[in-house]
Amino acid sequence: MGTHDFPDPKVPKAVPYGIYDLGADAGWGSVGSDDDTAAFAVQTLRSWWQMVGRPSYPRSSRLLICADSGGSNGYRVRLWKLELGRLAIETGLAITVSHFPPGISKFNKIEHRLFSHISMNWRGRPLTSHGVVVELIGATTTTTGPTVHAERDTATYPKGVKVSDEEMASVPLKAHDFHGEWNYTLGDRRPPRPRVTLL
């Protein structure tokens, strides 16, 4: 979920990050109070997997993530790949990531199926606290749109974390033949055959 900051020192910072499960037409949102970092993005995925993904898809061994090309889950972000590699090892999942090429992330279904409904739901409502943001995201439900669950994440995610070449070499990452910078699988060396699709 992209964010636009207009900081006010009197108002606490709220950082939303979202997951959209295309097959279930369901969204998951985390609202942090620190920074929009790759560690926060992957922690949101971890929370979703533990609370929703694993119970909903108990036989899945693979996960497909469609992501933007920039931001905390950008294709150039080393910390994103390092943290996803850790998640792949921790869960036993083969995690395939396909990034939308630069400039076309507006075609990502998460924008039209999840964020648009969230934006309409909180339009004109003062976002006065983290609780209000979580409540409004979680209350996003329409007759034709997704159901959404939201939770607050109070952990700290410092900016500027550097990932060394040695750490990157330890990441179980295999670039795909087609635009390997945008398409890659972590935690598995077999050709990707994802079973769960997230946007």
Explain how this protein is built.
The chain is of the alpha/beta class. It is 31% helix and 21% strand. It has five helices and eight strands. α1 packs parallel to α2 (78-91). The protein starts with 14 loop residues before the first strand and ends with a strand.
Terminus-to-terminus distance:
10 Å
* Cα Rg: 17 Å
How many separate helices?
Answer: 5
Low-pLDDT runs of 5+ residues are none
| H-E string | EEHEHEHHEHEEE
Q: What proportion of the residues form beta strands (DSSP E)?
A: 15-25%
Describe the sheet with the most strands.
5 strands, mixed
Q: Which word captures the global form? A: globular
Kindly report the oligomeric state of this protein. single chain
* Structural class estimated from helices and strands: alpha/beta
Q: What is the residue-mean pLDDT, rounded to a whole number? A: 77
- Beta strand count: 8
**Which percent range fits the helix content?**
25-40%
Question: Order of strands side by side in the largest beta sheet?
Answer: 6-7-4-3-8
Question: Can you describe this structure in just a few lines?
Answer:
This protein is of the alpha/beta class and 199 residues long.
Keywords:
199 residues, single chain, three-stranded mixed beta sheet, alpha/beta
Question: What is the topological layout?
Answer:
Blueprint: E1 15-21, E2 26-32, H1 38-56, E3 62-67, H2 78-91, E4 94-99, H3 109-122, H4 130-138, E5 147-153, H5 165-169, E6 173-175, E7 183-186, E8 197-198
Parallel strand pairs: 2-5, 3-4, 3-8
Antiparallel strand pairs: 1-2, 4-7, 6-7
Helix pairs in contact: 1-2
